[in-house]
Amino acid sequence: MTSNRFTTFDLLKGIAVILMIQVHIIELFATQGVSHSIAGKMLMFLGGPPVAPVFLIVFGFFIARNNKSPLQLLKRGAIVLIIGLLLNIALNFNLIISVFFGKYQIDVLPYIFGVDILINAGIVLFIMALIKHFVKQSIVPLILLILLAAFLGKYLLSFLIEGGIKQYFLAVFYGTSWWSYFPVFPWFTYTLAGYTFFYIVQKTDIKFIYQIKYRIIFGVLFILFLLFTFKYAINTASDLPLYYHHDLVFFLWVIVFIAFYAYFAHEIENVLGSTVIFKFIKWLGKNVTLVYIIQWIIIGNIATAIYRSITSFWLLLLCFSAVLAISTLLAFLMEKFQKAKL
Question: Where in the chain are the domains?
Fold first, then answer.
């Protein structure tokens, strides 16, 4: 632990940042022929379970660990929600201006009110304030709520509403619209899972799992798990509507995957955590929100001009490298400026 942070979590978030940027490049810059290829599907998978679920699980863990009051969570939720809406405007600014000047004839409201991960986090903080007040640290009720939320993510799709203001409101909670990327159901489950995991760790001694025999057992189990389920996971994660509104089975798959993934990330952190590359990745993890905002503003505005037009993986790699480099530089400069003010 450094500066009261768990460095493995910073590593997981840093890896997720890198994978997030590449998947946004693939989603918005690459042609469908590229994104639907075997390599494209693999890249879409890498931008799926190891990214948003990891962010949200770590988010939930620190909601529990930081021990904020319900009122503080409500205030933070309002701030995050406002930031999410402002980011939607910023990343779609080129599109909004183009529509205003008549270049495109489309409705910009779905882009302004798109339910991305910050919108999800803002709403979920309101819900977590209620859970923290009423449910507190009771493990069994929390697990039941997790399973219920995961189930509702798919079940609620049977109740679709088309058109009108209700459609924008309900898109926040479940997948009624194409702009409902990270609705509360099922994605709330991951924040709640991280929140619950914190209290499980507090009440259970799990140090034994780092004995050498358990490392071997978990390694073998992880390989077998991937061998028998990887095709299912890739097909789900690379189909965006299916991924954004996945069912209870895929949620359980993601939880098992992340449990193994985080375990071995912790082992890697113990061995290589002091190297330059891993320090850089963890720095990205510590500055995840800032990098997230910067990369989306860059990618979103460029996407208006080149939407799904790139056919070369080499050109996509160049775009990824440029966005990562610029986002890192700007985040570094903003961090230094903030420290200088203090």
Answer: 7-341
